[in-house]
Design brief:
The structure is a single chain. By secondary structure, this protein is mostly beta strands. The chain has one domain: Beta Barrel (Porin). 12% of the residues lie in helices and 57% in strands. The strands form two sheets. Strands 1-4-5-8-9-11-12-15 form an eight-stranded antiparallel barrel. The N and C termini lie far apart (83 Å).
């Protein structure tokens, strides 16, 4: 009987130890934690670029055979503001101003510089952004442009004034952002604007010359991107 009682006591003690170890094992099991939800990005983005404006040379004065026109290149700052409707679809408003000197070419080459005009070409594009390339984020876009011509001054005594008419045009765009983090990156962008405004030149004697300026500039820009 004593042996039986001693065996029972040992068995009970061993069972308690096993149960304690099992409970300790249960306590050491890691507690499940829900994954951290990443904060959604703001839909707003801005870019500040240095912009090289390269017009096409072309145009004519009505009634003057073999007439042609040239336009000077320029470099100017540009600000654009983007709003993302989805992670892929965005609208971009492009803001900047520059100037160009209009010169005679072809049969008008002897005139030299004709006028200098300032150009304000606000442009709105709808873009598609590709998002499968990590920090490299290319995009394409298309939209409309409305160009305002102001501070128009003649540079040739053969003309007393010039009036380049404001006009609508088509805009095509391609570029990319390279993002260093969720906020900051660099940008490279190329746009083609289709602009062929009409103009009127007035002579000192009151005569009028009508024509068309085929500007159709390339806008090549690079700068800094910030996503809010």
């Amino acid at each position: 009987m004593m042996k039986f009682g001693l065996g029972a006591a040992l068995a009970a003690t061993f069972g308690a130890l096993v149960a304690g170890e099992a409970a300790a094992a249960d306590l050491s099991t890691p507690v499940y934690k829900a994954p951290v939800v990443e904060e959604a990005q703001s839909p707003w983005m801005i870019r500040l670029r240095a912009l090289y404006v390269k017009p096409e040379n072309g145009g004519s004065v009505t009634g003057v055979g073999f007439s042609d026109l040239d336009y000077s290149d320029s470099v100017t700052p540009e600000l654009d503001i983007s709003y993302f409707f989805t992670k892929n679809i965005a609208a971009e408003l492009i803001l900047g101003t520059t100037n160009s000197t209009i010169s005679g070419a072809g049969s008008l080459a002897s005139l030299g510089d004709i006028a200098k005009v300032w150009i304000l070409p606000p442009t709105l594009t709808l873009q598609y952004h590709f998002t499968d390339f990590g920090p490299f984020k290319p995009y394409i876009g298309a939209g409309v442009n409305y160009t305002v011509f102001y501070s128009q001054n003649t540079k040739n005594s053969a003309f007393s004034s010039i009036d380049v008419k404001d006009t609508w045009g088509l805009a095509l765009q391609a570029g990319f952002d390279w993002m260093f983090d969720k906020h900051w990156g660099v940008n490279f962008d190329v746009k083609k604007l289709y602009l062929e405004p009409d103009f009127v030149l007035r002579t000192p004697a009151g005569g009028l010359l009508n024509g068309s300026a085929n500007l159709n500039p390339w806008l090549i820009g690079g700068g800094v991107t910030y996503r809010f």
